[in-house]
């Protein structure tokens, strides 16, 4: 089954303050968002609630509309937004190109895999453990329509009325 490609948008902001990052996380999050944080010593796993203990060096929030990634650089953050919707967020530059997107199923690695020495968990609201198979996550591919090269793969959440498999 072939899937119709739709337009995608990519935005970037350099050197955002921690307060700006918090504001953007709040703006782009919704009730269907998931979070993933990377610390120097561990990862948060896939979480429905933004962990209260912050201080991550990298992170991401994603839902059915977009994925926002951030990475710490000294005391500030570089931010990338991969989305199927146009945004007008203060200080963000649109990355030029003709971006096409398509969603595909996501497959999880074993959460006990050794590349995560402190483990990898899946937590729902209120931090209860959830089975990876119960998470409604897909991958969204961002392809340059002129070169047919996939430049980014973002995580996304299956929309409630979407039941097609690709």
Please characterize this protein's 3D structure.
This protein has 1 helix and 12 strands; from the N terminus they run E-E-H-E-E-E-E-E-E-E-E-E-E. By secondary structure, it is mostly beta strands. It has a 6-stranded antiparallel β-sheet, with helices on one face. Strands 1-9-11-12 form a 4-stranded antiparallel β-sheet, with no helix packed on it. It is globular, with a radius of gyration of 16 Å. The C terminus is likely disordered.
Summarize this entry quickly.
The protein is mostly beta strands.
Total of DSSP H or I helical runs spanning 4+ residues = 1
Strand count: 12
Integer average pLDDT: 82
Largest sheet: 6 strands, antiparallel
Q: Give the class from helix and strand content and strand pairing.
A: mainly beta
Q: In percent, how helical is the residue content?
A: under 10%
Task: Write the topology of this structure.
Blueprint (H helix, E strand, L loop, with lengths): L5 E2 L1 E8 L1 H11 L5 E5 L7 E2 L10 E5 L3 E8 L2 E8 L9 E2 L4 E7 L16 E2 L13 E8 L4 E9 L9
Parallel strand pairs: 4-10
Antiparallel strand pairs: 1-9, 2-7, 2-8, 3-5, 5-6, 6-7, 9-11, 11-12
Provide key terms for this protein.
single chain; 166 residues; mainly beta; 6-stranded antiparallel sheet; 4-stranded antiparallel sheet; 1 helix; 7% helix; globular; disordered C terminus
